[in-house]
Design brief:
The longest helix is centred in the C-terminal third of the chain and has 24 residues, at about 125-150. The chain is mostly helical. It has helices at about 5, 15-20, 20-35, 40-55, 60-70, 75-80, 90-105, 115-120, 125-150, 160-165.
Length: about 170
């Protein structure tokens, strides 16, 4: 008989990276495109965190909070991200990106013209397409991690690993 704590544990179902290497490579290519698009890495990490909050992806929340901290993001901004509208810690560009992230993640609600205009005031055409591609990508990773039970807490940021290797 499973305990209440065990009932809430996520069981790893399929190692999707092993089973569908080509699909994962395509997702990784989208991730690399977003990373190299010229958008600020700090902004991309906030977007990844916000979409992962909305989708309830514990694996991606763990990963991207670690990556954000490794890149210098403050604890305060990470902690209050779900209430970004009420917090004074985000720039107008970040606010536009977060609002766009919410609309694209919850796409069934549509994307109002007013929100599009706010986003366009902060992002040129290419940047807005690149931002949207980053949102699409994190939503895809969220769905893979949730559906197939990625092991939460196992992720180590690459920068932390590189620092550890240099220190030894």
């Amino acid at each position: 008989m499973r305990t209440p704590a065990q009932e809430n544990e996520v069981t790893r179902r399929i190692d999707y990276a092993r089973v569908a290497r080509g699909a994962v490579q395509a997702m990784q290519a989208m991730q690399h495109y977003s990373r190299d698009s010229g958008l600020e890495h700090s902004l991309l990490e906030l977007v990844k965190l916000r979409a992962s909050q909305i989708n309830g992806c514990a694996y991606c929340l763990d990963m991207h909070s670690k990556d954000a901290r490794a890149e210098g993001e403050t604890e305060q901004r990470i902690y209050v991200l779900s209430a970004w509208r009420e917090a004074p810690f985000y720039t107008p560009r970040e606010r536009a990106a977060l609002a766009w992230t919410e609309a694209v993640t919850l796409i069934a609600d549509g994307v109002p013209d007013e929100l599009y205009e706010r986003a366009r005031a902060q992002f040129d055409e290419k940047e807005l397409v690149d931002l949207t591609m980053a949102i699409i990508t994190i939503n895809g990773w969220n769905r893979l991690s949730i559906a197939f039970g990625s092991e939460v807490g196992s992720y180590r940021p690459q920068q932390a690993e590189a620092r550890a290797a240099r220190a030894s």
